[in-house]
Amino acid sequence: MNTTGWSRGLEVTADGEGIVSHAGLALLRHLTDKTGLTAGLSRALASARLLIHDRGRVTSDLACAIADGAEVISDFRVMSDQGELFGPVASVPTAWRTLDEIAAGGERALGRVTSAVNTARRQAWAGIEARHGALPGIRIADRTLQGVTCIRLDATVTQAHSDKELAEPDFKGFGHHPLLSYCDNTGEPLAGMLRKGSAGSNTTADHVKMADAAIAALPPAFRRRLMVTCDGAGASHGLIAHLDKLAARRGYQLIYSVGWELGEREKRAIRQVPEAAWQIAIDTRGEVRERRADGACGDLQCGHRKCWIEEAHVSELTGLLRQGPEGDRLAGWPASMRVFARRERPHPGAQLTLFEAEDGYRYSLWVTNLPVTLRGWRANPAYVDAAHRVHARVEDGILLPAS
Q: Pick from 45, 59, 162, 312: most CB atoms within 10 A?
């Protein structure tokens, strides 16, 4: 069955005749064909039965509809209503049957679909390299880290308004608690895990499985130099140990940046940090985080220290935790793991803990295995902090499809 012939002879004109809605979908649909995604899904979902609509075509069309803003399966009609542009498109009942068939195939069918998607990604990324010379770098403040593929792990909560499979009460109501991974270089999802609403935020087994699935989703050439980030909600000893094991492989580099809990040992270490050891943090433009003080002079460009208030600072706690008076308080954790702390002035109305109320700063911690021997801008604590804080970009990948 020819699933890509719809685009042959397709012309784009601006004469005001033959206007169609959602015309941009044609480009996206054509991309799924050119990268081999449609053909790969056709092979993955091949059936001995005589089918009017190829299941690979139906599945890729569903993906296109979601990218176009579809929220329910019935929104799929947007494409079938444009028969002159898209050719024969499956009906909504056929789309449902396709999804039922995939679900009935279990893990084997899911594995075949995943393989087809990953193969298409290789084709797409090869095209990026051929045209631009390399994959986009990782934006860190005003710098760009080149030659590294960044994976960001994060969980989210999705609400369910009916008794759906795996939907359970959660801390935000009722629904699911999926775990996702995204490539920061391209902004695309790499792997996902649908979980019960009651699933834990820092379930080690789930995060380890997701990290491995995300790495496997990358084309082999892009697995050599990796950066993996995760917020504090997903942090666990098992996840850090697993990432440390992956980082130790010969010929591979993996730098992780994982959120860390502010416990009693960390509080004691923070109290011991000299004021001079706190380095001012930078914002997304690479500029220092400071604001004008009340009563500052009228010159907005002045260099008077009293006219400016530094809003955020960064410091490393590793030495205090490893070599303090109480000995190594990080025993049992990887030797290469370093602990950093960030303090910042809270926003108006923010609630502080008793510890934070002592000096008026809000604290957040994270750990990384960035080598202490590293030199250059990447080793600067301000950029180490910036590299971890941009983990929040993964939330854009989660929220955009939902919106």
A: 59
